[in-house]
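Case 252 in the screening queue. Each case pairs one protein sequence with one candidate compound; here the compound is 2-phosphoglycolic acid. For every case the pipeline is the same: read the inputs, emit a complex structure as tokens, and attach any notable structural observations.

Predict complex for case 252.
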Amino acid sequence: MRKPVIAGNWKMYKTVADSVATAVALKPLVANANHCEVVIAPVFTALKPVADRLEGSNIHVSAQNCSTEHNEGAFTGEVAAFMVRDAGCSHVIVGHSERRQYFLETDEIVSKKAQAGLAAGLTAIVCVGETLDQRDAGKALDVVKEQLTGSLSGLTASDLDRIIVAYEPVWAIGTGRTATPEQAQEMHAFIRRVFTEGHSPAAADKLRILYGGSVKPDNIAGLMKQPDIDGALVGGASLKAESFAEIVNYNG
Ligand code: PGA
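Case 252 output:
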């Protein structure tokens, strides 16, 4: 059985004080959520204060990015994965479409970041997803396969145990236009097949694949009914503790 993961990506929102306040408000609202793993991803500056306040709770803290470099060094503006771990995080998101689009991250860079995260003992949430043009051109499956293969290249079989894949169609992110449960299921099943071929049926069976893109309290249950959807990566609706808690508690 794959344990679902509900992760909140706070993107570049919230001061330290706002982040801590949201995390503290979330804690009691999801305290009984044993059916899934709960993850929140604040901005870098808030990671340590949020992680400190959540110590001993069932909420995991994730960074939204990390350096490709494994060790400290003269890399101005970068934050290494081991520093993220040191700040109290257990997860790191890599290859989000906003990073691919605005910060020109290639599959090669994403793969290096995933490797850096894993080497630091973090679970890497690796994001993939096609644009609307690519979907309309009938290329969605090819694009996602290429991203997946490139972003996971260089990983060992044991690394795969600490990988979570997030399928986030770019056209559904922040647009209010969510993929239908059937569209998402089709891609998730495809990703699992790619994993079976590229790695092993056992690795594919264990892999958690999250859906992301306009996930809200009113569409999470339908998505979670799909056999290959193992959770969600939530942007906008994760910014408020109440709406994120509703998503976490989708099962009742
Ligand atoms: P959204 O963002 O839920 O606001 O569409 C999802 C994401 O970018 O992870």
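Case 252 observations:
- The two ends are 20 Å apart (CA to CA).
- The pocket of 2-phosphoglycolic acid is lined by residues 9, 168, 173-174, 212-215, 233-237 (CB under 6 Å).
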